[in-house]
Design goal:
Blueprint lengths: L6 E7 L3 H10 L8 E2 L4 E7 L4 E7 L15 H11 L2 E8 L3 H10 L6 E5 L2 E3 L5 E3 L2 E6 L9 E6 L19 E8 L5 H12 L4 E4 L2 E5 L4 E5 L1 H8 L4 H4 L5 E8 L3 H10 L4 E3 L3 E4 L9 E5 L8
Parallel strand pairs: 1-4, 5-10, 11-14, 15-18
Antiparallel strand pairs: 1-5, 2-3, 3-4, 6-9, 7-8, 9-10, 11-15, 12-13, 13-14, 16-17, 17-18
Length: 301
């Protein structure tokens, strides 16, 4: 399978990006300076090798319709999702050849609304200013708005995967799983979505749902009760969610003992298990359950 459309980055939309950035920094993540997209959204990243966590907010609503792709407006989608609640909005998929990879998923029935070519200004750790160059291929599904994707190809990876930004004091090393909450009646359409992206051979069964292997990490699909059993009480914003949505991110953390002092100093409530640490107050981190997995992959629930 190689790295075909690996999990690149979940977009965690938040109302106050500065406060949320500080909370993630307190957990031991190296967060990039807040940057701006041309369509009115602000961003701060925790970078890993070919994947990342992205915090995103809206800095200028007058720009939200800039750079449309067909009838899709990136900034407007983020604004609308944030108006509903904080949490994971879209999820980017990594690509070295966006045109070729999208042709594969279109042949499986996934619709592409169009292409966005853009750059954003960055200031590197050495103080040098430059500008990124990125191709986005939009794979929006109106029936699964919070499970929609875009294929992301970085043409200036040297401005994204900057060595100093890849070093995290907590030892975090990447994303190994994203968990999707979907009621049993909704799971067939989520299955069709993941099969369209990765092919039916990438799907695997689980006791409470199913999953899909990607080029980087797994998507795992579970019903509401199974999510609560695995992660803890849902915040009210997630408990009232009626659409399938991403609710948990598993981060590879090879050394739990290195991680724990940051979690304790941040005052984060957590549960330590044999090879993982699970934070239990998702509302503090943008309505996302964060799990740090020592082994690099989450155990089946």
């Amino acid at each position: 399978m190689g790295r075909f459309l690996g999990i690149d980055h979940p977009l965690i939309v938040v109302k106050d990006i500065d406060t949320m950035r500080a909370r993630y920094q307190a957990l031991g993540f190296t967060m990039t300076p807040v940057g701006r997209h041309p369509w009115g959204t602000s961003t701060s990243l925790a970078m890993f090798d070919r994947c990342l966590l992205e915090l995103m907010s809206v800095y200028d609503e007058t720009l939200i319709d800039v750079s449309p792709a067909g009838d899709f407006r990136f900034g407007r989608t983020i604004r609308d999702h944030l108006t509903e609640r904080e949490g994971i909005s879209l999820l980017a998929l990594n690509s070295d050849d966006a045109v070729q990879d999208v042709a594969v998923v279109e042949a499986r029935g996934i619709a592409c609304q169009g292409t966005i070519e853009f750059g954003r200004d960055v200031v590197l750790p050495d103080g040098r200013a430059d500008r990124t160059a990125t191709t986005l291929k939009i794979l929006h599904d109106p029936g699964l708005p919070r499970l929609s994707n875009f294929v992301c190809q970085q043409h200036r990876p040297d401005l994204i995967y900057v060595p100093k930004w890849l070093e995290h004091a907590n030892g975090a090393a990447g994303i190994c799983q994203v968990t999707i909450m979907a009621d049993p009646a909704d799971q067939p359409r989520v299955r069709r979505r993941l099969a369209g992206l990765y092919g039916v051979d990438a799907l695997f069964p689980r006791p409470t749902g199913f999953g899909a292997h990607t080029g980087n990490g797994d998507f795992v699909v579970a019903d509401r009760n199974s999510v609560i059993e695995a992660y803890g009480t849902l915040p009210s914003a997630l408990d009232s969610e009626t659409q399938p949505c991403c609710v948990a991110i598993h981060v590879r953390a090879p050394d739990i003992d290195r991680l724990l002092p940051f979690i304790e100093a941040a005052g984060a409530a957590f549960v330590r298990e044999a090879t993982s640490v699970r934070l239990t107050e998702p509302g503090r981190y943008g309505n996302v359950f964060l799990v740090f997995d020592e082994a690099g992959a989450a155990p089946a629930q």
